[in-house]
Write a structure and sequence with these properties.
Helix content: 25-40%
Distance between the termini: 65 Å
Strand order of the largest sheet: 1-8-7-6-4-5
Number of helices: 8
Low-confidence stretches: none
Length: 269
């Protein structure tokens, strides 16, 4: 009879943070919307820019830029309610974006915050995302690991309460995790599909996969690229009407390829 073998290892400290985040997120009253957006024109513009200039702009940076500018048009969708029951609305849009790094020999996605993303170009965001992926030490979030270790020394119920109350401390929320959460599933895999993330922000968006399928477009049957997005909001803070307006603005920006620089000439080597 064959003997079965197994391996027993300690739970990595970073994974314990994820578990705490999941427990804290259960306190949020989130509503979710799954949408698709035609990004054929945007992807074409990104390809033309790469062919002309030799630079490959990040599609994640483009989508993040559109999200930030759609939020900036009505910042109430990134409002937070403080301990006194008052709503705090930030004019600046700070995007918390998970970036995968190797941590103690284990792959882990930590949150890097793209500051003032609504006023920055797609190229600036693309350069920052790629720089942090190449060298995670460039992100201030990585240097908070000693604080995370100290936090994990607390009892589990205390940690859950602290993390669950983070959104009631808007300034601390902004400093640690940004004002809007964006998870780019496409950074870690391929193919179509939606995802629902742990709700730690008032507004959280999962950038899913891209599918290609034929549709009737301007009287002709053509293939178009469709991006799947999951939009989640904390219904304790944001109602359906501002959420719908945000989704409409976001769809318009994505469909038009807004913010992608016009390709002019190839840079000299």
């Amino acid at each position: 009879m064959h003997q079965l073998h197994s391996k027993v290892v300690a739970v990595p400290w970073a994974r314990r943070l994820v578990i705490d985040a999941g427990r804290a997120a259960r306190r949020r009253h989130a509503i979710h919307g799954l949408i698709e957006v035609d990004v054929t024109s945007a992807r074409g513009a990104l390809r033309r820019y790469c062919e002309t200039t030799g630079e490959n702009l990040s599609f994640t940076a483009f989508v993040t830029s559109c999200i930030a500018r759609a939020v900036a048009a009505d910042p109430t969708v990134q409002a937070y309610r403080n301990l006194r029951g008052r709503e705090v609305t930030f004019d600046q849009v700070d995007i918390g974006l998970p970036v995968e790094v190797d941590l103690d020999g284990t792959s882990f996605a930590f949150t890097h915050v793209l500051r003032d993303a609504g006023r920055r170009t797609v190229q600036e965001l693309s350069d920052e995302i790629r720089a942090v992926k190449a060298d995670p030490q460039l992100s201030p979030s990585v240097h908070k690991a000693p604080w995370a270790h100290a936090y994990l020394l607390l009892p589990g119920f205390v940690r859950t309460r602290l993390l669950g109350s983070l959104h009631r401390l808007p300034r601390r929320q902004q400093a640690l995790a940004g004002t809007v959460g964006v998870t780019a599933v496409g950074m870690f895999g391929a193919g179509g599909g939606w995802g629902i993330a742990v709700q730690l922000h008032t507004l959280s968006i999962v950038i899913g996969g891209i599918t290609r399928r034929p549709i009737l477009f301007q009287g002709h049957l053509v293939e178009r690229d469709w991006l799947q997005l999951t939009i989640s909001v904390d219904h304790d803070v944001v109602d359906g009407a501002p959420t719908a307006r945000f989704v409409r603005r976001l769809r318009e920006l994505l469909t038009a390829g807004d913010g992608i620089p016009r390709a002019t000439s190839r840079r000299s080597a």
